[in-house]
Amino acid sequence: MKKYLLTAIVMLISAAAFAQQSSSSSVVRRRGADDRNSAKSATGVTQRMQAHYEDRATSDSEMQWMRVMYRQLDLKKDENAALYYPDEPVEDQENLFRIIMRHMASGNLTGYEYLDGREVFSDNYKVKMADVLDRFHILHTQAKGSTEKNPRFTIEDADVPASEVLSYYIIERWEFDKRSNRMRTRIEALCPVLHRDGDFGAEAIRYPMFWVRYADLRPYLSTQNIFTNDDNNLATCTYDDYFQLGLYKGEIYKTRNLKNKSLMQLYPDPDALAHAQDSIQRRLETFEDKLWVPSLEELAARREAAEKAELAAAGQNSAATDAAASEAPKKKSSVRSSRSKRGSSEASKKSKPAKVKKAKAPKSSSSSSAVRSVRNRKR
Fold this sequence. Notes:
Elements: H1 2-41, H2 47-52, E1 63-74, H3 96-105, H4 129-135, E2 141-142, E3 153-154, E4 165-177, E5 182-196, E6 205-208, E7 212-213, H5 214-221, E8 225-226, E9 237-238, H6 239-244, E10 251-255, H7 263-266, H8 270-286, H9 296-351, H10 374-378
Antiparallel strand pairs: 1-4, 1-10, 2-3, 4-5, 5-6, 5-7, 8-9
Keywords: Signal
Protein name: Gliding motility protein GldN
InterPro entries: Gliding_motility_assoc_GldN
């Protein structure tokens, strides 16, 4: 009996010890997870969020067609104003350049060298944040926890040149995915462009700073709400929504080509350059529609649009012919009036009386009058 009691006591003690050990390990695990979440909450992006916004690159075998576009976004245009304003942080809102600089200074974001015409996003072309700050004369200090291997910097809000970044370069990829048979537009990278006045009041000089991969920047853009419409002051859109929906507006300044030349180099004439930009944009927008056989509704809509265009062209032609016809009688009447004036002047000339020659007095004969003698005058 005593043996059974001792065995039961030992089993109870071992079970209690095992339960205490498991509870302590669970506490340790929870603390470790809390520490990771607290570390990520400082940047506002968790590991789960990063995995959610991770954009897997589409392989060439999955694509049927692809074209790369380079655009310039002018922040002075109304469509791109959401990227510039507010130029200073207001109520936890900041513009795109401040977000980029803050995360690059803290070591959460990587920048790559801006190469003239060549973009390489590899470790060999990563930029050092200290070199960027010194190159563009941005005041900064060493942040807490900064090391030689992982440097971190603190930049005051007044020292960030957000008001001088007046444009961006972006790289677009227009891809036709043969798995889904859909066309999609994907942004590959962004480059802030610094505009600084030249010497002696010359035109502002543009300084492309660095490239940032959009896939690395996207998790941070999804946490910043903005409003893009003056009629609705609610911030119902994020920076990521702004780019994914294509709410920006930019001119195409280059397409990826074998010669690696910009459109300005290929088309020096301004009119030819504008025509090339419009034709490229039109081909991109209509590429997907031309792949499929149109439905009956689409054919009817196209036919109706063509008829309207023909009627409009016919109306313009008839208006032009009417205007030409109205001008023609005026010219004929003017010719007739000039002819009538000329004829009346000739008739008036003809109606004038002819000059009558005066008749000379007849010579007098010797018998009719006496002739004085010279001899009598001498007397």
